[in-house]
Design a protein that fits this description.
By secondary structure, the protein is mainly beta. Helices cover 8% and strands 39% of the residues.
């Protein structure tokens, strides 16, 4: 592991998470593997009428993927959630339904932004993305309902894409040794190390900062980390 003598490496790097319009997205960022934490979903308006008006969202159902356990839900703008459980009393889905008195059936369009939060234990599967299937029900001014199911995998060219929860390994501020258990490509580095200052594998390095990346390219004996990162590879990551 080499040292880049530049203040940019030690500086904090700020990032923003953009929520794509008309999608339901995980707004709380990456989840840490094998821990319990809050997961917040941003609910945009995936339902529109023929005139393009954003229909009132009246309920949101979130299916809980296998491996996500100890699920607890928070009250939202839709009120208290209803849970569906299996024979072992594990939560398999949560549904938030807007009280009838809060429906905007008389409004020309729904301009509210909704967030729904649950707390759950994340499986010990770093460097993966957990797919949540979400069912959004909307209603127009005369009571006709539209249902959008966000269930398509990443990269699908049809249907409505599921929100994905990115799972990263546990880490602390400063240097962290990460032993890879899953293969990822260099194109996945921004996904799983987007909040890091720098990532080293041997004499190759990656940084989400353009300034630090430029320094990597100018440092003798150092190359930009590229190609596949394989199980068994040892990474040194600074946060």
């Amino acid at each position: 592991m080499r040292t880049l003598t530049c203040a940019a490496v030690a500086a904090s790097i700020l990032f923003s998470t953009a929520i794509v319009n008309a999608h339901i997205e995980v707004a709380s960022g990456s989840a840490i593997a094998n821990t319990s934490q809050k997961i917040t979903f941003a609910v945009a308006h995936g339902c529109t009428d023929t005139a393009g008006a954003k229909l009132d969202t009246i309920s949101v159902k979130i299916d809980i993927p296998a491996g996500v356990t100890s699920v607890r839900a928070m009250t939202s703008d839709f009120g208290k959630p209803a849970a569906t459980v299996d024979g072992s009393n594990n939560v398999t889905s949560l549904t938030w339904t807007k009280p009838s008195g809060d429906l905007q059936t008389g409004a020309p369009s729904d301009f509210q932004w909704y967030e729904i939060t649950l707390r759950a234990r994340i499986p010990n599967t770093p460097f993966t993305k957990i797919q949540f299937v979400v069912t959004q029900t909307c209603q127009d001014g005369v009571g006709a309902q539209t249902v959008v199911v966000w269930d398509q995998p990443e990269g699908s060219m049809t249907g409505s894409p599921s929100p994905l929860l990115k799972v990263v390994p546990p880490h602390r501020t400063g240097w962290n040794k990460v032993m890879m258990t899953t293969m990822i490509a260099d194109t996945d580095l921004p996904t799983y190390f987007g909040d890091a200052q720098i990532v080293w594998r041997g004499n190759a390095a990656y940084s989400p900062s353009a300034d630090v990346t430029a320094l990597i390219g100018m440092t003798p004996g150092v190359s930009v980390l590229s190609g596949l990162i394989m199980p068994g590879d040892e990474l040194w990551v600074k946060y």
